[in-house]
Design a protein that fits this description.
With 179 residues, this protein is an alpha+beta fold. It folds into two domains: 64 residues, no CATH class; 114 residues, OB fold (Dihydrolipoamide Acetyltransferase, E2P) (Beta Barrel). 19% of the residues lie in helices and 35% in strands. The relative contact order is 0.18.
């Protein structure tokens, strides 16, 4: 059905309004998506914008996978670099923090004898592997930092649960805090 809609749109140039609960379908068909929560419009954006720079923690969890961590002294709506994310090695007061989205593909794991290169991975954090699940083309690895923050990343190799590892966070996106 996706291909039929795509072909019709390309052939006619008609504006299509398509209502779906299928996130994958919406992301692949739309040039803009309206995300609604409890009958309210919470964000209107391109699929890429919704994935890369969601406004809130709820939207970040609704669109794709990712981990939410908390950093102090960060404004919402800012792309964060490795150097800013190294703050995760420090414990912070939870009442004075901003939620930050870390997508799994933005976590670089440093494993012994790894087949994944780490040329762009600097600023390393320590973590313990809590779970490793084989997903076909990759392993999904849940880790916990010494501060208690939890992260989910991907790697082509599996890692034993309980293993101590190092990781780098390539980028993050600071979210709006919603009361």
């Amino acid at each position: 059905m996706e291909e039929s809609f795509r072909e019709f749109h390309q052939r006619t140039g008609a504006t299509l309004v398509y209502v779906t609960h299928d996130q994958s379908e919406a992301m692949s068909l739309a040039d803009h998506i309206a995300v609604m929560q409890k009958g309210e419009l919470v964000q209107w954006a391109t699929p890429e914008t919704l994935y890369q720079t969601p406004r809130t923690e709820w939207i970040a969890g609704f669109i794709g996978q990712g981990s939410i961590v908390h950093l102090s002294g960060i404004k919402p709506g800012v792309n964060l670099s490795q150097h800013e994310l190294i703050q995760l090695s420090q414990t912070v007061n939870p009442s004075q923090t901003t939620p930050v989205l870390i997508r799994p593909e933005h976590i670089c794991l440093h494993l012994p004898h790894s087949i994944q290169g780490d040329s762009q991975c600097e600023s390393r954090l320590h973590a313990r592997v809590e779970r490793c699940v084989f997903r076909g083309e990759r392993h999904e690895i849940q880790m916990r930092l010494p501060t208690g923050e939890s992260l989910t990343g991907y790697h082509p190799q599996g890692v034993a649960e309980g293993s101590a590892i190092q990781l780098s966070l390539l980028q993050g996106w600071s979210l709006e805090s919603v009361a």
